[in-house]
Amino acid sequence: MTSGKTAAIIVAAGTGVRSGSAAPKQYALLGGKPVLAYSLAALRGHPAIDRVVVVIGAGQEAALREAVGDVEYVIGGATRRMSVLAGLEALASSTGHPGPVPGSTVPHDLQPVGVNSGGPRHEAGVTVGVKIERVLIHDAARPFLSADVIDRLLAPLDAYEGAIPALPVADTLVRYDGMIGETVPRTDLYRVQTPQAFVFDAVLAAHRGWSGPEPTDDAQMVRDTGHEVTIVLGDPMLEKITHPADFAAAEARLAASMRSRTATGFDVHRLEAGEELWLGGVLIPHDKGLSGHSDADVALHAITDALLGTIAAGDIGTHFPPSDPQWRGADSAQFLQHAASLITARGGIIDFIDLTLICEAPKIGPHRSAMRDRIAALLQVGVDQVSIKATTTERLGFAGRGEGIAAQAAATVRIPETR
Ligand SMILES: Nc1ccn([C@@H]2O[C@H](COP(=O)(O)OP(=O)(O)OP(=O)(O)O)[C@@H](O)[C@H]2O)c(=O)n1
Ligand SMILES: C[C@](O)(CO)[C@H](O)COP(=O)(O)O
User: Which amino acid positions bind a divalent metal cation, per UniProt (predicted)?
Assistant: First the structure.
C-alpha cells in the first residue's frame, strides 16, 4: 500500500424519511447504542485509519454529541452527494489541498470542519495539515462494519482509484410493468455497499466536476471520470437500514453476532479487629472487618476481576492501583460499576454472576438476599442474574482459622463481534 494518511467520512446528514423513525435513523438506538456509534467505532478503531469526519445535518450538533461524544464533524447538504462533497472539502481545506476551480459545483457556504467539543468550532487539532492520500466514504445507516471489510477495501488502492464492497445477486431479476417482462441475467450483477474506498484526489476531482444526473453512490462518479474502480467481497452484516423493518433485521443481526464469554475472579482480604466488614456492597455486623485496598470488599473485587476478564481488560489493580492514595478506603461499588461500564461501552450485556464466599464467619445466609439486591442494582441486571453461595474450609487454612475471607466469582457476558 502507498504511504500517506487515510481518512474516513461517515455521511449522517440524511433525514431517514423512509425509515419511519421519529429522529434521523443514524441516532436511533440499536442494541442500546446509536446506529452511528457502531461504524464510527469500527473506523476509529482500525489501525490504518488516521482521521474520521462525520457529516451531519444542520442543527444536529447536540444530537451528535449526545450520541457519540467528541468527534470531528462538518455540516452536510440536501443530497447524499452534497454531504459527501462537504466531507471531502472539509478534509481538503484542512490539509492544505488546492481549492475548487471557479465554476465547479462546490457550494460557497460549506462549513469549516469542527470538533464537537461543546465549545466553539475550531480546526481539528493534530490531524489538520496532514495530506490525505486515501478516503473511505461510508453511510452511517450501515452500522456493522468489520475490520476485514476495511482491509479488503484498502488493499487494491495501489492498483485502482477505487474499491467498493459488493455482494452477488442471489435472486432472479425481472423487469416489471404491471406484468413481468424481461428476465435480467444476474451472473455479473452485484449489490453495492459502503464504505467505498478511493484515492483521495480522484474522488475529490470527480465530486468537484460532477455535472451528471444525481448519482446513488460515489463509485459511479469516480468511474465516470475515467478511473478504474474494483469490487471486493461485501458483507451481509453491512445491510443498510432504510425501511422500518430494517431496524428489527439489524437487531437480529446484532444478536446473532453476540459471542458469550466467561471469566473468573478471585480475591482474599485479611480480617482484622476495628475494621468495618463490607461484603457484596453490604455492611455486615461482625466483630472483625476486612482490611486492605479500598473498603476491601472481597466479593465486589472478585466480581470486578471476573467482569474485566471477560473483555481481557486486565484486573482491578490495572484500573485502580493500590499504590494510588485516592483509592484508600474507597467504596468498591465504583470499581464494579467501572468494569460494567467497560462492557457496556463495547455493546456487551452481562448475563450472569456467580459468587462463592469462603469463610468460617460470619454466616452468609442471612445477608445473601441484601447482597444479591445490591450487586444486581450496581450492575443494572435482574436479581435472578446474581447467584451467591458460601462455604467453609472445614476450619483448615487461613479462612478456617478466621484470619481472612476469600471470594471466587464467575461472570458470563455477551459481546458483539461486530464493532
Ligand atoms: N442529504 C443527505 C442524505 C443522505 N445522507 C446519508 O447517506 C446515507 C445513505 O442515505 P439514505 O439511506 O438514503 O438515508 P436518508 O437520506 O437519511 O434516508 P431517506 O432517503 O429515507 O430520507 C445515510 O447515512 C444518510 O444519513 C446524507 O449524509 N445527506
Ligand atoms: C451509497 C449506497 O449505500 C450504495 O448502495 C446507496 O446507493 C445509497 O442509496 P440511498 O438512496 O441514498 O439510500
Answer: 267, 269, 301
Does 338 belong to an annotated binding site?
A: no
Query: Kind of pairing, strands 162-168 and 404-416?
Result: unpaired
Which SS3 state, helix, strand or coil, does residue 152 take? helix
Residue with cell 471469566: 263
Is 268 annotated as belonging to a binding site? Answer: yes
CB distance 239 to ligand 2 below 6 Å: no
Q: Determine the pLDDT at residue 128.
A: 55
Among 89, 52, 47, smallest CA distance to 70 is for 52
- Domain chopping of the chain, boundaries: 5-243, 258-416
> What one-letter code names the amino acid at 164?
I
Q: Which CATH superfamily is domain 5-243 in?
A: Spore Coat Polysaccharide Biosynthesis Protein SpsA; Chain A (3.90.550.10)
Is 164 annotated as belonging to a binding site? Answer: no
- Please enumerate in sequence order all residues whose Cβ is within 8 A of that of 413, keeping only pairs 6 or more positions apart, or say none: 260, 261, 262, 307, 310, 311, 343, 348, 349, 350, 351
Q: What is the pTM of this model?
A: 0.78
Is the C-beta atom of 18 inside 6 A of ligand 1? Answer: yes
Interatomic CA distance for residues 377 and 277, integer angstroms: 20
Nearest alpha carbon, ligand 2 atom 2 = 217
Ligand 1 proximity of 13 Cβ (cutoff 6 Å): yes
Q: Is residue 392 a known part of a binding site?
A: yes
Q: ipTM of the assembly?
A: 0.94
* Atom of ligand 1 at shortest range from CA of 78: 1
Neighbour count for residue 133 (Cβ, 10 Å): 17
In 274-365, where do the E strands start and end? Answer: 278-279, 282-283, 288-291, 349-358
CATH numeric code, 258-416: 3.30.1330.50
Regions of the chain with pLDDT less than 50: 1-2, 103-112, 117-127, 419
CA of 80, closest atom in ligand 2: 12
